[in-house]
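User: Run a structure prediction on this.
Assistant: Running it now.
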Amino acid sequence: MVFSNPMSSRLAWVLMWMCCASSAWACKHPVGAEPDDAQNIARADAVFVAHIIRLEEVRADAGAQVALLATYDVIETIKGAMAGSNTIATSYSSCDTLLMPGMDYVVFAARDGDGRLTALGASEGTRHHDPRMDDGAYLLTIKRLVTDKALSSP
């Protein structure tokens, strides 16, 4: 299944959120042990703002769990090199941020042994990005933390 129509993507996102919002709380870290933004940045190999173009279901074989591959355009790179394919793996897990076509995200990603990116979950920084909603405050915080870390590194 491929999602590429922004309107149907938004509808699918709203329906998934309504159905799964309560189960997402199960993925949170124990109270008091939630990673902060600085810890999330340190763990991520790449942090960037992306516009999701397409979302495609992929399976390694007939019995495998469904994975998702999102195709994106980089709007802005905040941390890490963004060379190579503009695809990122994610899933339908309630722990992950569902990357919907037509929407923008601040993405925290880890690289596997082959250099492929996997989006880190909602509690690990990845979230929907709409500067009209929070005046871009989250993105500004992330940029400041990355800059501060770079300035304090030897």
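Residues 8-26 have pLDDT under 50 and may be disordered.
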